[in-house]
Each structure stands twice: as structure tokens, then as C-alpha cells.
């Protein structure tokens, strides 16, 4: 009977994309919690700005960008606090896409609420007629605000991730 000798000095794990072992990649944090923090920050900031807008007129794009920045700050700071590290690139992408998807879902719910609770049948009919006659301004505005939300979310998450990185603070 011959015995097989095993080499214990070699690691059985292989490196992944970010230089992490396959084992530690499977232990990545769940991003849904941080997307929730993003949504909470966005909702709170939007609510505060809605109250401010009853007294002072503010640019809606500015309000959207500032709300996304605050939501990104809350999500990134919670991530750094819980994980003791900065976000990796794939985590930044998941947080950005998830955060923007939640922002658009909340916006759709908000507009549906306005549509059904605030507008009467005549107002709905007038808005539908206006949209059917000139759909291009509405479509271009939707595309522009979609691009604005993606760009502002991406830039704010990247900058805040870099700013709140615990390794940079120590150095």
C-alpha cells in the first residue's frame, strides 16, 4: 500500500477578480441593506426639500441631485462603518444601480399617488391629450432625469467612497 503525500504549503483557494480568494468573495456583504440606507436618505432629503419648496422655489434637478448625494453618503458611510473597508468596484455598481432603481420606483409610486389621489378625471384627460400631442418633451425630460440620476449617483458614491475610505484616513 502506497501512501499519497499532500502538499500542505499550497493553498487550495484560487484568486478571484479583486485579488480575493473564492471563499472570501462568497462572503461579500448583502447590498440590499445599503440600498435601503440609500433609499432612506433619499426619502428624508426629498421630504425636507418638499417642505422647503412650500416657502421657496427650488430647481427640481438640484433637489434630485442633493437628495441622491445625501442618500449615497448615508449608504457609503454605513457600509464603511459596518465593513471597515471601502466599497469595491462591483459593489459600487450594485449600489448605484440599486439606488437609482429604488429612486425611480419611489418616484413612480409618488406620481401614481398624485395621478389617482390629486387629479380629477378632467385633469387626467387634459394631461393625456397634451402628452399624446407632444410626447417628445416628456420623453426627453425623462431621459435627461434618468441620466442625471445615474451620473449623480455614480459620482457621489465614487467620491464618498474615496473620502470615507478608512485606509486613506489612517495613512
How would you describe this structure to a colleague?
The chain is mainly α and 171 residues long. It has one domain (29-170). 75% of the residues lie in helices and 0% in strands. The protein has helices at residues 22-26, 32-53, 60-83, 89-118, 121-133, 135-163, 166-170. The longest helix is centred in the middle third of the chain and has 30 residues, at 89-118.
Q: Runs with pLDDT <50, length 5+?
A: 8-17, 19-24
Q: How widely separated are the two ends?
A: 57 Å
**Total count of strands:** 0
Indicate the percent of residues in helices.
over 70%
Order of helices and strands: HHHHHHH
Q: Beta-strand percentage?
A: under 5%
* Envelope shape: elongated
Mean pLDDT value = 85
Radius of gyration: 23 Å
Structural domain count: 1
SS summary, helix count: 7
For this entry, what is the oligomeric state of its chains?
single chain
Spell out the key features of this protein.
mainly alpha; 171 residues; 7 helices
Helices and strands in order:
Elements: H1 22-26, H2 32-53, H3 60-83, H4 89-118, H5 121-133, H6 135-163, H7 166-170
Helix pairs in contact: 2-3, 2-4, 3-6, 4-6
Please summarize what this structure is.
The protein is mainly alpha-helical. It contains 7 helices and no strands.
